[in-house]
Structures are given as C-alpha cells and as structure tokens.
Amino acid sequence: MITLRLNHQQHDFLQSVGDIGDLVRAALQSSAAVPPSRSNPVSRTPVSAHTSFSRTPVAAHVLEPGTGKAVEVRAGQIFRVTQIEGHQCVDLNVFALGDRRERLHCGRTRGMQGRHPGPGDVLWSNAPWERPIMAIIGGTATTDTQFPFCSRLIYSAFFGRAGRTNCQEIQNEAQREYGLDPWDIHESLNLFMHTATGPDGEPVIRRNVARPGDYIEFVALLDVLVVPNVCGDDLTNCSNFGMRPVRVTVEEGRPADLAEAGSAVQRSVVLGLPDRHEVPGARPLRRDPTYEADFPYLPLRPADVRVEVAPDLIDRFHRARNTDLYGDDEDAALRDLTMSWAIERLGAFAGNA
Ligand SMILES: [Zn+2]
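That is the input. Now the predicted structure with zinc ion docked in place:
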C-alpha cells in the first residue's frame, strides 16, 4: 500500500480525471528514473550583502494557504517575503496609500525592467503617475511578470473545477480590509514563480525551485499598501502541487537600504523621469476597523487516498521521485508524479510540465 496525501480540492480534481488508485498506478508505471543529481538553477547566495544585518522590525505575518494580507509599508521601509517550507508562489498587488487609483503596473514594469525583475530593479505604477513605487534590493528568488493571477476562470476552463482557492478571490478578500473592491485587483507580480521559454517561444511555468529561507525584499519609494497572497493553485507545478505558508515582514530601512533603492531608481531611466503633475481627486486608502478576514473555500481538508500497488511500482517510485526538489518528502514526490501525470493526460497544461 502507498498513501497519496491530498487536500480535498486536489482529491476532487483527481477524481474528476479518473479512479485515483488507477491514476497513481499508471503514473508510477510510466515514470522514468531521474538522473542522480541535477543542478539547482537558483542561486542560494543572498544578493544583498546588507541582509545579514538586523533591521528594526515593524510588522510580521505568516500567510497561511488560501489567505493573503494587506500590509502598510511606509516610504523607506522594507517589505520582505520569505519561504518557510519552500515551493510556494506568492502573488503581489501594490497600491499607493495616498491614492488608490495609483497601483503597480506589471506591463510597464515588464517593459522597463524585463520579464523577471530582481535586485536592482524597480516596480512601476500605472499612468498617469508612471513612476517607481518600490525598489527590489535583495533576494534569492525568481519573479515573473508574464502570467496573470489564477482566477475562477482558470480552474473552470482548464480543470473543470469551480468553487476552489484562487488568487483572484484571495486578493479580493485581503484588499477588502482597506475598502478596495473586486475590480481593483491588478496584474500581480509573481514572486517565486519559475518561468521559462517553451519550444515555440511561449512563456511556460516550471517547477518551483524556492527553498526554505529564500526571500525577496523591497524598499517602498512612497507609502504603499502591499497585498501578498499564497497562490491558490495546488493543482500544477507552479507551487509544486501544494500550498504552503510564507512569512511577510516589514522593517525600518537603513541608510544602506535607501542608497540601494536610490541606485535602482537612477538605473531605471536613462535621461530622467517626466515632470510630476498633480492628479486631482486623490482617494486615500484607509483600514476598515470592522474588517474580519473571511477567506473563501477554507478550511482545506485532508483527503488522503490509500492505494494498493505492486512492489515493482514501489521500486519505480523510489527511482523516479525527485529528491533534488523534495528531499526525503515522499508525500510531495508522489503527489507530483501523480498530479503531473493526470494533468498531462487531461491536456490542460501540457506545455508547462
Ligand atoms: Zn495563483
């Protein structure tokens, strides 16, 4: 016997593809032994030398799967997202606290900084402001600006599933704390999302390579409301077929941090930023003191499946399981083998494996 450890959402999806026992056995039967060692494409060395010095803490939150949190970050403060268990994609929205109409513009950021902004780059806001609102000053993480947030549409269109965790509705609930409406959600900066170019030049999502302790940190260039959320996708390789908690902190920036942020802004333009014009009718963001978080589709319930498998399939599993990614976590490795096989059969996300 072997146990496939799932949550109820994953169980419901697999059951819609076929008999779960048959899926596990077929996935193991078709699995190929992996080479003994592969290189990790992500550097584990912190990019910013300043991260070894402690800063004055302002706020700290652990974001549980299926949740997000709106966090105020004042100009000059550091916003940091850190992996606890690894493997986790995090979506990030950003709004100007002084005017909710100004927000992160992922397309402009992609155009100005490339598809994968990292340390030394800045995040740009929408027109008519179009200015750097945060600077990335350190991190060991990949980012992506190409893929839109996962939404009810994605799970319905590609997986035939409705009523399950998704970044759209998690963001909606988190930003509600500051009176932002569902239509205020904007394209997310995808933190820890590992993307590459597919055979036809199209962007594809690869397995998540974030390890415990991997992080990314920003300096706020104006007072902002940042809204990170644990990506609601537990069906694909985006977060390696699971959802795991992440840590979010706000700290006071030190002079060295502000200098790095200033350098990033300087590098972001060649000949200077346009003159600032006041945009009348500012709509400041304020916290709703009556807000109580009520994230949809929670709690996630365990839905393990015991599967009868022949000894030769157990041997196959031990040869095929991805120890580079999952170490000795056999549950995660079996979930990966089974769910990626099922998705491939479904043809939904064939290009992203
Ligand atoms: Zn998502």
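Residues 1-39+303-353 form one domain.
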